[in-house]
Amino acid sequence: METFEEFLSKIGEPDHKGRLEEILGWIKEKFPQLETAIKWNQPMFTDHGTFIIAFSVAKKHLSVAPEKVAIVQFSEPIDQAGYSQTQELFRIPWNKPVDFDLLEKIIAFNIEDKADCQSFWRK
User: What is the pTM assigned to this prediction?
Assistant: First the structure.
């Protein structure tokens, strides 16, 4: 989690910082094989050099970016969780609970789907 310390220290809202710390810590515990990085000013997790998931902080929500393929695969559960989405990300409002089960499924999907991927992004 050292990788994320500087990023987290810049989040002014304590509740938002705490929520993101919880999520990042949970991912590191659940998927210890994933590497951590800050790229494009976003905390992210990678696996064997390929992108798995990233996060960005906004005033009203936390954006979760697992790549378009994962958004398409999990579009319905994302809607059912009450999160808005675009082609590349979904948004968890700060005032809504985190659906950790959904997050786990998305991360596991990306790890499996990109097991043989040799590039950072899907092609």
Answer: 0.95
